[in-house]
Amino acid sequence: MWQYAAVILLLFLVLYFKRYKYLKQFEKIDGPKPYPIVGNYFLLKNPKKHIAIFNEFHSKYGKTIKLFTGMLMNLITTDVKLLEVVMNSPNLTNKTNDYIMLFSRWLGDGLLISSGEKWISHRKILTPAFHYKALEDFIEVFESHGKLLVGNLLKASSEECMDVHTIINLYTLDVICDTAMGTSVNAQCNPDHKYMKAIKTMCEIAPTRLLNPIYRSEWMYKYTNLYKSEIKALETIKSFSLGIIEKRRQFLESRHSDDVNDYDEFGKRRKMTFMDILLKSTINGKPLTNEEIREEVDTFLFGGHDTTSAAISFTCYNLAENPDVQKLVYEEICHVLPTDHTVTITDLQNLKYLEMVIKESLRLYPPVMIFGRVVDKEVVYNGIKLPKDLRIAVNLYSLHRDPDEFPDSEKFDPLRFTADKQSKRHPLAYIPFSAGHRNCIGQKFAMLELKSVIAKVIKNFELLPVPGFTLQLTSKVTLQSVNGICVKLNPRSA
């Protein structure tokens, strides 16, 4: 027994002296005073208060602050000069251990978590999935699922206060399953599908575990009911994905043709999916295993589901709150997308004002509020040595509200994103899709999906604000509102 106590004491001493070293090294960087062992945990234990707390930190302590999670120090920044280092340095491409702790059992070594040569090789393989021609093929998917979404919204339009996020979340799951795996879980028709429930469970577990010291400890976590729920959800997710991958692999192998993407196993013409690209790819002459493909497919599903539904929902909310902006969006949509017109990728690209509206909504409500990097090799910034293993987090929510870059920053103003105004801002003042080496590979895909579905919603409904309703924002895996993202839908006359 004493051996365990000695190991724990030794670990504590190592972390204590590391913290002391950081406090001395970064004494010029201010931040809230940490407590022994727990650090600043008590300030952060309630995610409903994170946004207000972080905004207060930056106004009180500066654009870069130091914050302790337990014994570990983090730099939290909104400083565009430091961001130049964080986003562009080859020594700052790895994600923090939080990503590994929360998602490694689910996403393995997918693009979100992987590093080094594996990340480089897989990123190279998947880049063609987001070229113009590939994206063009996905417009039909956006449109078909968008029509079903409009039908579901119409059924709910009698409600005086409707949480659009609940319904839109099902739409984005259908889209990402269709484009990533070539199959649909029909979430919009079957919201109780076991796969849908499993995904929801995983997304709820992550923020709960992140903030609880007991759950953060891997060996303690494995004795909790939360861990049992995670394992059960993962069994559902993995068996579903692996089943589709194996079925598709067998079909492709049976074709014995270079043109394997024309028809599915039912003889229906199909589009190239992310999964197809992975199945056809090799690294050093070896094909990817089913598990490697599953990790990437599930990474796309995770990255392109909740984030996209949050972006769509907050944009709808902003349009409801700003009727003059909504009127201009509606007029542009009617001009670019006349009735009974088959929507093309060119049409969506021509929705210039809608794009500015979406960008402004992403500025005020970035789906990923904060993301982190870890220093892989010592970097010098502004005369300060950033040591190996230092964790640096970017606070997008406060960054996008920096009055130095965005005057009257709380105001919703799409004209901030005219070409002229964008050129006068620091390029890293606005990064909803991250930036640099690890920018979001699917950002063009996401923007096209957002344009497609929001155009459908606005063409069919006038969005009205709900009297007395105010967003109650909270930071989970994505930025969310505790009381929903509510609007009133007024169907437009045909």
TrEMBL record:
<keyword id="KW-0408">Iron</keyword>
<keyword id="KW-0560">Oxidoreductase</keyword>
<keyword id="KW-0479">Metal-binding</keyword>
<dbReference type="InterPro" id="IPR002401">
    <property type="entry name" value="Cyt_P450_E_grp-I"/>
</dbReference>
<protein>
    <submittedName>
        <fullName>Probable cytochrome P450 4d14</fullName>
    </submittedName>
</protein>
<dbReference type="Pfam" id="PF00067">
    <property type="entry name" value="p450"/>
</dbReference>
<dbReference type="InterPro" id="IPR001128">
    <property type="entry name" value="Cyt_P450"/>
</dbReference>
<dbReference type="InterPro" id="IPR050196">
    <property type="entry name" value="Cytochrome_P450_Monoox"/>
</dbReference>
<keyword id="KW-0503">Monooxygenase</keyword>
<dbReference type="InterPro" id="IPR017972">
    <property type="entry name" value="Cyt_P450_CS"/>
</dbReference>
<comment type="similarity">
    <text>Belongs to the cytochrome P450 family.</text>
</comment>
<keyword id="KW-0349">Heme</keyword>
<dbReference type="InterPro" id="IPR036396">
    <property type="entry name" value="Cyt_P450_sf"/>
</dbReference>
